Amino acid sequence: RSDVFERIAKALDPKNRRCYLLTGSYGTGKSHLCLMLANYFMHQSDVPELKEFFASYSEEDESLAKVLSHKRAKGRYLLAVPEYGSKGDFEELVLRAVDEALKREEFEGDMDSHYQEAIRKINTWQEQGRSGKTRVNFYDHFCEELRDRFPGWTIDRFIKGLKEEYNHDALQIFRQIHKNITTNEFTYSKDNLVDILTAINGTKKFQERFKGIVIIFD
């Protein structure tokens, strides 16, 4: 496990642009390794838990323990852990986990994602409909389509599905209705998981608090 830990820790190197997939049979220590990695990325090396970890690591390789400790001497990473066994595709689970991590850290601001863009579209349609200055009330058309074609969804439940749950079904329903009422495909420049995470990681506000985002899917 120490070899695996060292390899994954290399993700801190500026030129390292890899993700890592760990496989193995039940009981081989994968979850324990993930817990060790979570502490390593979340905290600086001077916290008691990591001091104890590096002291133990030094018994096996003192020089490498110093290198690993030095890598985490400053700053911390936002740790997102997708919930095992939750429903949804990979993208949905990761987005939800990152959103929950941001809330846990009391970091203000929504993720700029296609889910948020769908909500902005709905809100814009609603405002335009109320103003009476638009020839086509897309909001009313949207609500009618949602009620008639997808009776299991209310508008409030639908907004919650997009905003809080990153519900993949809700997003696909929005795409269908959007095309039906506007005759255009719903598009957004950040309709990609990597783009969304890169946008979060690249803001000055985020960088003032975190060195990056670490996602551990156990």
List keywords for this structure.
mainly alpha, 218 residues
Overview of this structure, please?
The chain is mostly helical and 218 residues long. Helix content is 57%, strand content 3%. Strands 1-2 form a two-stranded parallel sheet. The longest helix is centred in the middle third of the chain and has 18 residues, at 114-131.
Q: What is the N-to-C succession of helices and strands? A: HHHHEHHHHHHHE
- β-strand percent reads under 5%
**Sheet with most strands:** 2 strands, parallel
What is the mean predicted local confidence, pLDDT?
89
Q: What's the helical proportion of residues?
A: 55-70%
Number of helices: 11
Q: Span from first to last CA?
A: 15 Å
- Categorize the overall geometry: elongated
Radius of gyration: 22 Å
The strand count comes to: 2
Assembly form of the protein? single chain
Largest beta sheet: strand ordering: 1-2
List low-confidence stretches.
Answer: none
Task: Give the structural class.
Answer: mainly alpha
In short:
This protein has helices at residues 2-9, 30-42, 48-58, 62-71, 90-104, 114-131, 138-149, 155-163, 168-182, 193-201, 204-207, and strands spanning 78-80, 213-215. The protein is mainly α.
Task: Please render the helix and strand layout as text.
Elements: H1 2-9, H2 30-42, H3 48-58, H4 62-71, E1 78-80, H5 90-104, H6 114-131, H7 138-149, H8 155-163, H9 168-182, H10 193-201, H11 204-207, E2 213-215
Helix pairs in contact: 3-4, 6-7, 7-9
